Task: inverse folding
């Protein structure tokens, strides 16, 4: 290995170790399949090494990785599952119907009725995230996995930064309402009380 | 302020994207009503938990990297003088988003001052000094070393006997090799890896070893029979020629310098201050007037890649305390 190549491989390895798991978990949110997700992420890294090595040293690598994984997941879904993916637009109207069905009151959408002690906050939260309106969920997931700035998320999803902000706020508000309805809110109050 | 408004502020704050004006607005909202602080904590918890809830699967990063490496058009690998037939990079799996920290074989050594006198003075040496930032190094045998800023690693270019010298703090992921174990030397101690990976730090007065998992032999340089084998969860200090057992190595932030994550779960303020001070290489003390209460102030928070300013801001928001700066020291006090 030449010194230059060793340096590049070192960069490659650093980026890989830092972002492999978040990228795979992000991919799982589309594919629902960890093995397929790993394949998609690994293919992407091989492609970067082969074609876009210069990207490794750039700060935009994270933006590139998450955008590419999302695109590749969608391609995979189209091919494998023949699933229809709706284009992501700034049009808010689509979400309204979904919002109304969002079970903030712990209503009919919540099928299981575990006792208070059985309530696993994490599971509730996972379910609540899963039930976010599609667009809202998409922005929220990309933000939480990639930790990109609003501007970068906006560019990646081809929407405006303001929409990113609004959707993230909405996600937090809906999650809060959903957990509150499920009685988790009370437990949170224990956090910190100064004497 | 409407719910939508304050949620937006809290969100921007949590996402480190709030402007100074927005920070100020958040602060005054928090101070307006004790209820607001509880609301803030609830939102913050959802935000932090969601990161963890979303990491639904754990992936074997080391195995994946091996697999991908096999597909890259790398030119012939560096000749391997140690003739390790099977290079299996040990994998550290610290999944910041997992509910439980995945197992990692980790050892911390806080070493002695002064630079170890080179035993390999006849052979060419490679010396790497992480001057301005943490630095990762792949050794000729495939072992990985992550140096904390300020650390220096030195080894014979061939690495034939798999022995390196260290000053400062570093995290090691040696490749498996039963015939030639991996060793680290500091001025007064030798650490021999019996597990898979470990962390080493070299401080002025003493050598400290912390093993998170795996097994490491810790011996005095001058008297190798004076040694100790530490396993998972153990921590010991060597000063002069005596070993002292110290508090168990349960601190999840022992690798914060490498992961850039500080995670506190209902921890006393004094521990929180110590971990923050270590990570940011600064001094933080608690106002003596708070001494009595300090033990009852507990913090649950998580910081990832955040500047000290934001971390202190968060601590202030959570505890209701203030900070002032005295020379190079931050003092936490109650107004």
Result:
């Amino acid at each position: 290995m030449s010194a230059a190549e060793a340096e590049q491989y070192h960069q490659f390895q650093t980026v890989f170790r830092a972002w492999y798991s978040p990228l795979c978990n992000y991919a799982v949110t589309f594919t629902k399949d960890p093995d397929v997700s790993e394949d998609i992420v690994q293919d992407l890294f091989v492609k970067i090494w082969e074609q876009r090595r210069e990207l490794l040293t750039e700060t935009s690598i994270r933006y590139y990785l998450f955008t590419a994984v999302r695109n590749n997941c969608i391609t995979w879904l189209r091919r494998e599952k023949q699933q229809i993916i709706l284009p992501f637009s700034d049009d808010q109207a689509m979400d309204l119907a979904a919002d109304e069905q969002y079970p903030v009151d712990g209503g009919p959408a919540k099928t299981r009725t575990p006792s208070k002690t059985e309530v696993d906050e994490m599971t509730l939260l996972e379910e609540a995230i899963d039930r976010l309106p599609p667009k809202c969920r998409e922005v929220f997931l990309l933000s939480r996995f990639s930790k990109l700035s609003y501007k970068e998320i906006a560019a990646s999803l081809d929407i405006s930064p303001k929409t990113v902000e609004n959707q993230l706020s909405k996600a937090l508000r809906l999650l809060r309402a959903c957990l509150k309805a499920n009685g988790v809110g009370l437990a949170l109050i224990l956090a910190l009380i100064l004497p | 302020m409407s719910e939508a408004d304050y949620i937006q502020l809290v969100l921007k704050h949590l996402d480190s994207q709030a402007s100074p004006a927005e920070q100020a607005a958040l602060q005054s909202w928090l101070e307006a009503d004790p209820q607001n602080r509880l609301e803030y904590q609830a939102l913050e918890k959802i935000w932090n938990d969601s990161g963890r809830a979303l990491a639904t699967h754990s992936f074997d990063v080391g195995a994946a990297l091996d697999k991908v490496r096999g597909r890259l058009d790398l030119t012939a690998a560096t000749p391997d003088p140690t003739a390790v037939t099977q290079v299996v990079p040990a994998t550290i799996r610290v999944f910041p988003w997992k509910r439980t920290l995945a197992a990692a074989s980790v050892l911390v050594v806080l070493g002695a001052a002064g630079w170890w006198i080179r035993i390999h003075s006849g052979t060419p040496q490679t010396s790497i000094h992480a001057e301005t930032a943490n630095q990762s190094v792949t050794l000729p045998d495939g072992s990985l070393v992550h140096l904390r800023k300020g650390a220096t690693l030195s080894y014979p270019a061939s690495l034939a006997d798999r022995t390196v010298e260290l000053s400062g703090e570093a995290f090691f992921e040696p490749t498996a090799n039963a015939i030639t174990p991996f060793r680290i030397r500091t001025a007064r101690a030798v650490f021999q890896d019996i597990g898979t990976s470990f962390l080493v730090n070299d401080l002025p007065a003493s050598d400290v070893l912390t093993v998170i998992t795996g097994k490491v032999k810790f011996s005095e340089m001058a008297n190798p029979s004076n040694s100790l084998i530490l396993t998972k969860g153990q921590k010991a200090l060597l000063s002069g020629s005596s070993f002292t057992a110290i508090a168990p190595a349960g601190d999840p932030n022992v690798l914060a310098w490498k992961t850039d994550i500080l995670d506190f779960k209902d921890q006393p303020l004094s521990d929180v201050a110590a971990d923050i001070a270590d990570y940011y290489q600064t001094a933080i003390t608690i106002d003596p007037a708070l001494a009595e209460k300090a033990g009852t102030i507990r913090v649950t928070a998580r910081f990832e890649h955040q500047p000290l300013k934001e971390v202190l801001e968060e601590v202030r928001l959570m505890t209701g305390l203030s900070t002032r700066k005295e020379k190079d020291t931050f003092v936490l006090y109650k107004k």
Chain B touches chain A through 56 residues (CB under 8 Å).
